[in-house]
Amino acid sequence: MAYRENKPNTPTNDAQKLVDSILDDYQKGRNIDKQDDFFDQPSKETIIDIINKLMKIVYPGYFRDRTYKSYNAGNHLATLIEDVMYRLHKQIFKVGKFIPEHEKSCPEKMEQEAYRITVEFLSRIPMIRDYLESDLEAALEGDPAAKNYDEIILAYPGLYAITVNRLAHELFLLHVPLIPRIMTEHAHSLTGIDIHPGATIGRRFFIDHGTGIVVGETTVIGDNVKIYQGVTLGALSTRGGQKLRDVKRHPTIEDNVTIYSGASILGGDTVIGRDSVIGGNAFITKSIPAGSRVSIKQQELLFSGKPVHCENDPTEEPWF
Question: CB-side exposure of 215: number of CA atoms within 13 Å?
Fold first, then answer.
């Protein structure tokens, strides 16, 4: 190897030693060493660009390209649709190899299927927008701090996470691998809200604040559900690993449920009945009947340290 030669230490020689060492490390045949199909891998950067263009399609008055001197909705939409069709079609074709039933398909057939899925997905945008309108209304009605719809669309991380999830969920239902997960993990990285694209979410879904929320793959959420920051809708255990794939591992939340901050609801058999309220920091692994109010009883606050007393206040009582 080149780095074993007796050469003086210079930046160029040191760099070559590092290159040779890392190239040797690539030859160990591990999963992380794969290089041969580099150009056939989906592009995370392209998928994020597709998300940004989809946001312009979904909310035309809020995320449109403002560099144009004049704006024509039809022309602008046509440009966006053509661009998304082209890019998404290519990305779906690239992930087609991860679909078992297409693993041995000829490239022409996979190309046609990728195009069909792309067109079918884009045809669902009016339906997605209808759901998002209900989410937007729920946000304004449910948050007294919200001044108007514009503020929610432009500033609320919860609506952004829900929007990306609703788009990704449709690709998930069309059996597109990898791309939906890249989409929702991008939203997760921006908002701190982790919603798996497989989760089924009804209308009028409102996330208040949102940071730290986790919603698992097989979660089912009904209509008019409101959840606060730090809520986990998760699995009881993942020790079974891949054996648990396609098994319902996450809870069902029925209509008109509110879940306050820090609550954890776990398990595929756990059902939170409609019209229930789950208090903050509750830990639930069993089903709750409809109309329930769940809260933590008698939380104890402990104080330590020496209290400060005012010398001229004889009425002040000591802490202990």
Answer: 33
